[in-house]
Amino acid sequence: MTIRVLIADDQELVRTGLGMILDAQPDIEVVGAASDGAEAVALARSLRPDVCLFDIRMPILDGIEATRVLAGPGVEEPMAVVIITTFDLDEYVYAALRAGARGFLLKDAGAALLSEAVHAAARGDALIAPSVTVRLLEAFAGASPADAVAQPIEPLTEREEQVLAKVATGLSNNEIAGELFITLSTVKTHLASLMTKLGVRNRVEIAIWAHRTNRITPPGR
């Protein structure tokens, strides 16, 4: 199955470079490119790509707002969006994830990580650049009790708690299946149940919920 990707960046050189990297992958095809956020939204709606790869700072409509339009709360058929930027700023990471992004990469991530992020987003998974992951999770884990999110009305099962812990440490579905000795389909079933019980839409939000409720101890603590 070929993963169809839309790229949006206001710099032509960056668009071209990203396109060359992704088109070199045997199962990825770049189906469109936009130079601003408004054009990106229009192309996404007409082309219906499997994954959108958006820069943050773009004219007319920035990448975070474009993400919110295509994947944010209330969107009936949210698209898979990966944010890729030169700006390693916490507020951008948080804003991108709140807007519905399934991944956050820096432009120096390299071809392998870029490809991995696109594949993860296409699968319904999420990937955050390693350079910002620990800081991101520590920030949520350190939230005060007043900031803690509500517990689910229906308690999590023991297995769901186990899957929750693995997701929060950044493991993929395949890795979770291997560590818990369950099938990949069983992992997906538990993830779907977690999203329903927690009222979240993807594994990034599951991880954030786990850390904000202090279920997980971040690295180094």
Which helices and strands occur, and which strands form pairs?
Layout: E1 3-8, H1 12-23, E2 28-34, H2 37-47, E3 51-54, H3 63-71, E4 81-85, H4 90-98, E5 103-106, H5 111-123, E6 127-128, H6 130-141, H7 158-168, H8 173-180, H9 184-198, H10 203-212
Parallel strand pairs: 1-2, 1-3, 3-4, 4-5, 5-6
Protein name: LuxR family two component transcriptional regulator
InterPro entries: CheY-like_superfamily, NreC/VraR/RcsB-like_REC, Sig_transdc_resp-reg_C-effctor, Sig_transdc_resp-reg_receiver, Tscrpt_reg_LuxR_C, WalR-like
Modified residues (4-aspartylphosphate): 55
Unreliable runs? none
Tell me the Rg in angstroms: 17 Å
Helical content stands at 40-55%
Please trace the helix and strand order, writing H or E for each element: EHEHEHEHEHEHHHHH
Domain HTH luxR-type: 149-214
Pfam family, one: GerE
Protein name: LuxR family two component transcriptional regulator
Domain Response regulatory: 4-122
